[in-house]
Amino acid sequence: MLHLVVCIKQVPDSREIRIDPKTNTLVRLGVPAIINYYDLHGLEEALRLKDEFGARVTVVSMGPPSAEKALRQCVSMGADEAVLVSDRAFAGADTLATSYVVALTIQKVEERWGTVDIVFCGKQTLDGDTGQVGPGVACRLDIDQLTYVEKLESLDLETREVTVHRHLEDGVERVKARLPVLITALAELNRPRRASLPGILRAARYQPIVWTTNDFPTIDRAKIGLRGSPTIVSKTWVPEPKQVQTEWLPSEDSAAAATALLDHLYSTDLPQKLGWA
Amino acid sequence: MADERFDAVVVGAGPAGSAAAYTMAKAGLKVALIERGEFPGAKNIFGGVIYRRQLEDLIPEFWKEAPLERTVVQQSMWVLGEESAVMLGHHNQRYKDPPNCWTGLRVKFDQWFAGKAEQAGAVPIYETVVTQILRDGERVVGVKTDRDDGELYADIVILADGVNSLLGKQLGIHHEWGPDEVSLAVKEVIALPRQTIQDRFNLEGDEGCTIEIVGQTCQMAGLGFLYTNQDTISLGVGVMVSDLKKARVKPYAVLDGLKQHPMIRKLIRGGEVKEYSGHLIPEGGFNSMPKLAGDGWMVVGDAAQMVNAVHREGTNLAVTSGRLAGETAIEAHKVGHFGVGALDAYTRKIRESIIHKDLKKYRGVHQLLGFGDSSLLFDKMPQALNDAIYNMLLVDGMPKKEKQKKVMRYFREAAGGNAELVRLGMKGWRAMNG
Ligand SMILES: Cc1cc2nc3c(=O)[nH]c(=O)nc-3n(C[C@H](O)[C@H](O)[C@H](O)COP(=O)(O)OP(=O)(O)OC[C@H]3O[C@@H](n4cnc5c(N)ncnc54)[C@H](O)[C@@H]3O)c2cc1C
Description:
heterodimer, A: alpha/beta, Rossmann fold, 2 domains, two-stranded antiparallel ribbon, 13 strands, 30% helix, 26% strand, B: alpha/beta, D-Amino Acid Oxidase, Chain A, domain 2, 15 helices, 17 strands, globular
């Protein structure tokens, strides 16, 4: 049976985020936690494959004990098993240390429930915004990575080939790859489902599996937590709104306004810069 | 459909529903608690004051763990004139030990209370709307929710879905509330530094105060309120819907008016409005209370119109009715009977409880509100009282005897003559004394 792993992270609800004007860091206190938006699209895609082909879906997350709630939500939507990797020693991890621990977790998931065919991650997190963890995990697992996926066109279980559309800056790339792969999901990929009532009931009683550093006997302690995180935030600031010069072009009606605007634009060097000329 | 069967399903995780779920789960019943909000309390509002007595019966010393705002040591009533106020209040340090009541915010309180039910074993089903009561003939056998495979079956369904109980209407125990049976309240939560609140209201530490406000509600039947929280102030006003309809006034316009009043604007100066919300309050009281139990169902709290509008007590009646329904369910579960005969014990318990006694005492109040036009009680009389006191205290060389006459004239003129004034006084007395 297909084995799909979905990586999720609990993040502060960005609709309610404030920035501390003194420290320029996110105020996390009292902000409700939600599942990182893009991760939910990864989960939904895994669940769709489960609906179509039958699959085991395992969700993994590294985070504080409170992330159990996020994992339960995944179970309510249809995930089979959920693993929380939680230990004080993991705290303060940057993307390098995080991808190390997540990769180890996926290896352990494989030992436990069989080889993994596809790993789903979100394109990036709402709080960190780097988009580095997915690729980092793929590297460590030594599998192909398909980032910025907006459509999963087909999966052929015979040939073990998956075809996806990657949304790039200058167009869409249609790629075929052989399993196992890691996919990072865009919001366009799908619309996450609402849990069914039986799903909610199962989740209410479900106890996520918790692994700590003790569950990873071979873990390299120099590579985890703050110690394993070479990233240094040297400075953070809130950009000042840019002051731009505004010119008013008064005119009678919209047609005259459009003409006046075009005339004015062509009197500057802007069209040249934009390659319109 | 979910394969699991429950002993009881509770619809609504307000104070009534959580009290019922907690009571039953603690006794080992298999309980599901369904709430439409993202989490309990997410969309709920009240003034609000939380009382010790009834909740303490359920969770002893709950105040040591519950998220409460301030311990109320001072309660006042302000009768507002246009630019004046007559103030009556009581401050007593004895209200701290044992505490009598606290100010609170539903977002935090409801979440905590439902959490207690969860810890006791109730299964939380949130972000889920119950859309239908499931019946087998006359008997209620479960509910249908808006989720896929959303039917849930249980021996008993407890309706705790609040004042606007759609399910009560489905059951046929409610009609659509008339505009004279509910008032519409709007409320703002205004942020101010903790210390500023303490200084402005003459409070120390966690002490809090409440102010009920009469008058200046645009000639409509209504009451304003101002309660102090830790670092916010709850300011709101509830107005009879029938009056709002007649006067074609928007409730927030009434609140805006209050915020401009010289007595109030100084108290909230510099504050930032953090939250604005509106909600119905049942005002029908005793006379509007529906049938409380039937074959496989009971109804509790606001859904049963259990609010004492005069003393702004609602949460405590909700908690008590929830507990009594829960206890009835436990007894019914023991004997395995869930019909009208078994569940009607709940109706009896309510009748013997303080809920029934208090609501009965004030059953005339609702009629009083409809007495003539509201402007008399809620505008002319308050203004007359202010004018009277103003003149009493004004040193202007008028002989005292003459002054007394003049003062009485204000009331007489407001009421529209001596006979009317006496009639109003008698009506008021009867309404407040059953
Ligand atoms: C402005 C205002 C001020 C007040 N001040 C005070 C005060 O100071 N002190 C006091 O004691 N009382 C006060 N009250 C009254 C008090 O708030 C209510 O009496 C009390 O909340 C009733 O509790 P309840 O559990 O019956 O209903 P509610 O608190 O209304 O709870 C009903 C719950 O059911 C949920 N629900 C409804 N329909 C469905 C459905 N179909 N499916 C799933 N869930 C559903 C709702 O989301 C809600 O959470 C005030 C009320 C208002 C409006």
